[in-house]
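Q: My labmate handed me this sequence with no annotations at all. I'd like to see what the chain might look like in three dimensions before we decide whether it's worth expressing. Could you predict it?
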Amino acid sequence: MITNPTIETLLARRSVRAYKPEQITDEERDTILNVGVWSPTGMNNQSTRFIVVQSPEMRAKLFDAAGAFPNRGGNPFYDAPTIVLIFADQSACTPFQDGCIAAVNMQNAAASLGVASCWINCAKELFSTEAGKALHQELCLEAGLEPVCAVILGYAAESPAPKPRTEGRVRCV
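A: Here is what I predict for the chain of 173 residues:
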């Protein structure tokens, strides 16, 4: 297998669910967000929007809104110091895909900088609740922007070990 620093980063990245309270640097945050902004989008519509939540007050509001979900235990944001909410303009040709590409690119950029991350899938569900709709307005999000996911960022309090890969997932024809 060919290897280089990019391949090594991609293979080593893991989803982290335990974070130190220390905030990432502004430079790390801005670099990761710039990667999201420069991620490809369908027909170059640039449909993605990023809301960065670092204030303890807004993080608490997100946690409270997400805590209203039945059958969910604990903080779905794992107490990460930075939460990036990814929204996409639903009038674009590929809004969900655009948001997904940005999320993955930002996670890989974070890994290359030594910043841990995890994809958080509850954003769509969170913003469909009454509390979430109020947060949508409080965050001054324009109409037509729908949540895709969230990416949490911080410094890992523990690093998960890689799990074995399932055999037979690739077929060359």
